[in-house]
Design brief:
heterodimer, A: 129 residues, mainly alpha, 3 helical TM bundles of succinate and fumarate reductases, two-stranded antiparallel ribbon, flat, B: 243 residues, alpha+beta, Ubiquitin-like (UB roll), Fumarate Reductase Iron-sulfur Protein, Chain B, domain 2, 5-stranded mixed sheet, 9 helices, 33% helix, 13% strand, elongated
Amino acid sequence: MSRRPYERPITSEWIFRHPRYVRYMVREFSCLFIGGYALLMVVGLERLSQGPAAWESFLQALQAPASIGFHIVALAFSLYHSVTWFNLTPKALPVQVGEEFLPDGVIAGAHYAAWVGLSIGLLWMAGVF
Amino acid sequence: MTELSILRYNPETDDQPRFQSYEVPCREDWVVLDALNYIKENLDPTLSYRWSCHMAVCGSCGMMINQEPKLACKAFLRDYQGLIRVEPLRHFPIERDLVTVIDDFMAKLSRVRPYLIPKDVKALEAGEYRQTPAELKRFKQYSMCINCMLCYAACPEYGLIPKYIGPAAIALAHRWNQDSRDAGREERQEALAAKEGAWECSFVGACSEVCPEHVDPAGAIQQVKIRSTVDWYQEHLMPWLKK
């Protein structure tokens, strides 16, 4: 009796085999918007370095409907990206105190707290308050 | 009665696998493995599949049930509506019917040295290696792994990049790295810190979701990444800290 193992081809159908794979792909896809927004910030810095007129026209461009649309979509994806990653932090950073591990909510909660703290600090530096 | 559609493959006569349907009684306390045993005993003795304990301990009967990796002994017929599709575990070559070729996993498992590598080997009369309950708790969940390979079937990275060491092997290596009696982390790092080691993982998390023993391989892999990153920084930025 001879062996003749059969290798099944790998196709992209796995993405739709279970909702968890779709959620994963959306999380991975969301980084494009994070990257896109970071590029926009770099462009803004460049325009700022070119003087007041260039900066003003950059601000004008930001108010265009397409730009506002991009910001709304980017914000939604950024939130999804941040929330999904923060919720995974207890797996990567378990903290054992005595015999027991700290509950997942404490680890993820600490990250949310740091996020809120840093955001408030940033807004304060920007003169919002 | 309930209908099972089973992927069959006979290497001697078939060029590729095909589905074959069987009608089995749907009893309240039956799992898919009972249905397979019923088929083998009453309908078709040529059906091949692995099983042993029938109680989710041996890890032999892993298969795809309605596209999800499951232990056939833990998947109750009553939890499924309509046709139940049974296929061999994904990402492994099919030997025959529901039997897969698991050589790749076995080789990877031995590469990560999943056994105690003590710093100083004690003489037998020196007694046992002692451990506190807290030290035990640090790794205990990973020691529950039964090598059923459901995590490999769930992991798209392993499907796309077959040289990836994969979830169970890394979780078991991590189990020993976390053990207070063990000093073998450096030896395991060669396999774990390689590109096809922990870094191939993009944290899909499916491995932990499908594990029938509630092990968290995804967590283990991320912890290995963090330790490897700290290693790198120590080696390149603070070489004087290295022993």
